[in-house]
């Protein structure tokens, strides 16, 4: 259960999809029928008001032509039924806030289409996923021949068909209400101002065009179908990190593809989308400490009128957030709205804000060495805090292992916060080559051979195809690494052959200015490694 402190902003009566009057109307439909049925059942009356019994002899069965109907035998006819668990409608504000997970959303019948803010998850999709949610249940079940649209069900018009008299005590007149939607809370001005402050430094600052116009769109180049394309500089840290987790899913966890791992580098459109959903889910779930996550989408309309010290680009005021407490629900929401992340606009901003709210604005500030640090720095570049938030779930300011305490004098200690445990994907930095920082083993030796590369104020990705290279103890080692830079307008695959050990030469004889920065980054992980670019022009 998300605590009040972790919620982006306090909710008011306007944040719910149904107002109080609507809630009372919805609730009043069910008890009246239920009580009426209970009274009749107590009297032993098998008839139900409002539902005319139809003679089976005159009933046309689906799939059969009309004609003579044979007499019923003494053997009970087996009904083709589908049993659906029936949850209680929780529509009051207190109940919504107390639900231990994604909450129910209902269409607003009193307003126009703009007021319908549900996610539109279909009942069919939930059945395909063998999908069950936490929540209260009446214990009653309803038997139906088909699965009608939930929004089209009308209790007053419901007709029970193909039900024998012995089945009547098990029948409920309630329409089945599935937990197939999530309550979305609009971002209010207070939350928008706090988000802008932690991201940009002030609520008066604005997102750059490079951020606004960047999403997670893939390359159509045959050899680079796995690559996310960056249009302009700025959000490269976000793109490279998601690219790294995408490759982890594609190469090592997506089992539907060919056993030939090289063929996995040519994914289909559906595979790319599926792996992107999984990658985004993993990042957000880790940011929420694997207990909760927040997904932010654009609703297309403003939810507040800006006042005071706030500059609006008509972005945050149109956003809504959905809070979930299990990763399956997280994947469902992202899959339903993945197009908003894939398009050429807002994708990076939506993901960044989702990660911040999943962690919570307060905890993001606590992670940093200086609480005034921003996640987006000068010229729109991603800071190390933002990259670390996506990589390991904490917006810490450093890349070394664990925390370090420094004596500031006069008995004062300064705490420098680092990476707490081994990461799934890692990071290599050119700054380490210049002794500006030290990357710890938690990032240098991740669980999977995929690294975000920080080089010359830009982030890109380096990855291998064999996990064994992370644990090999051989003195002489040779392996291939693949490099991808979404901003470089890359048109071909870059495969590097790395040799480690006695096969390498003395690099002291080579002019340092002629060594590509990428090679220097590789050598922070494999000392004195020899890199063969395999007829590809080295990137200087």
Automatic annotation (TrEMBL):
Q: Does the keyword Protease apply?
A: yes
Claim: Protease is one of the keywords in the record? yes
Q: Name one GO molecular function term.
A: K48-linked deubiquitinase activity
Chain ranges of the Deubiquitinating enzyme MINDY-3/4 conserved domain: 196-535
Instruction: Please give the InterPro entries that the UniProt record associates with this protein.
Output: MINDY-3/4_CD, MINY3/4
Query: Domain of life of the organism in this record?
Result: Eukaryota
EC?
3.4.19.12
The entry's keywords = Hydrolase, Protease, Thiol protease, Ubl conjugation pathway
Q: Which GO terms of type biological process are on file?
A: protein K48-linked deubiquitination; proteolysis
The record's catalysed reaction(s) read:
Thiol-dependent hydrolysis of ester, thioester, amide, peptide and isopeptide bonds formed by the C-terminal Gly of ubiquitin (a 76-residue protein attached to proteins as an intracellular targeting signal)
The top EC class, named as a word, is hydrolase
A Pfam family reported for this protein in Swiss-Prot or TrEMBL: MINDY-3_4_CD
Q: Which family does it belong to?
A: Belongs to the MINDY deubiquitinase family. FAM188 subfamily.
PANTHER family, per this entry?
A: UBIQUITIN CARBOXYL-TERMINAL HYDROLASE MINDY-4-RELATED
Its biological purpose: Hydrolase that can remove 'Lys-48'-linked conjugated ubiquitin from proteins.
Stated name of the protein: Ubiquitin carboxyl-terminal hydrolase MINDY
